[in-house]
Amino acid sequence: MIRATFAAFICYNKIMKLYVFDFPPGAALYLIFITCVIGLCMGSFLNAWAWRTAHNESIAKGRSHCPECGHVLRATDLVPLFSWLFLKGRCRYCGASIPKRYPLTELICMCLYLSIVLRFGFTIDTLRFILVGSLLFTASLVDIDIMKIPDGMLIGMAAASLLRLSEGMPVLKDMLTGFIAVSVPLLIVVLIMEAILKRTAMGGGDIKLIAVLGLHFGALKTLLLLIIACFTGLVFAAFYNSKNKVNKAFPFGPSIAIAAWITALIGEPIINMYLSLFI
């Protein structure tokens, strides 16, 4: 079974160039395991960071505590995923229900890290997408909580784009084009819609986020990202409004984050396939 699974990954590797599988099977499995552990741990940390940001608490001060009873949590209460399973989703001290968001965010972050390492191997791109992915993931959680994308996280994503300069100065043109080419027309369209509809059409944080991601992806991939975000946004809006049983504004950050994840992993093959239809 293990050999068959690994053989399937090898075939997929030939298509997607998953660099981890250039290693011997034992080493590759070990690297995958380590990546999963780091992803789970970082998922726990990023979720805590997002929660504290949304509740105006510093991530650098104070120990983790139950949001219901305020009891300081022990190390055994903070083991990613397994503590939630062992405690059956309830606080050890007051019995309050622990939201499923905690294990879900940890698993999603694990998948995020694993997919990046599998796709890009041990490269500068891996470091760049891990950094921007972590910040984007945290910003999305904050957006879900308080409908706001923190400027500090946007600045961090912009700073991470400087790692692209390792490819050489010519990439600077692609970065600047990506920053402007989609976000500026999008801003103009949004301003026109708001003037017509007399209400907010899109948050300023979302537009700034598109601009910052343009530094990482360039113009074509950022346009693809926006298209994917619109489709995922429709699904997210339907789910969000059905859950709240009312039609109202919804956080667009998570849709942009999902679109950025997809674009990072398979954006280039999608664009090449599309362009091949006309060339």
In words, what does this structure look like?
The protein is mainly alpha-helical and 279 residues long. The chain is 70% helix and 0% strand. The chain contains ten helices and no strands. The N and C termini lie far apart (43 Å).
Structural class by secondary-structure content: mainly alpha
Low-confidence stretches: 9-16
Molecular shape: globular
- Helix and strand run: HHHHHHHHHH
Characterize this entry briefly.
The chain has 10 helices and no strands. By secondary structure, it is mostly helical.
SSE blueprint and pairings:
Blueprint: H1 2-16, H2 25-54, H3 82-86, H4 101-120, H5 124-146, H6 151-160, H7 171-181, H8 183-197, H9 204-244, H10 253-276
Helix pairs in contact: 2-4, 2-5, 4-5, 5-6, 5-10, 6-9, 7-9, 8-9, 9-10
Give me some keywords for this one.
single chain; 279 residues; mainly alpha; 10 helices
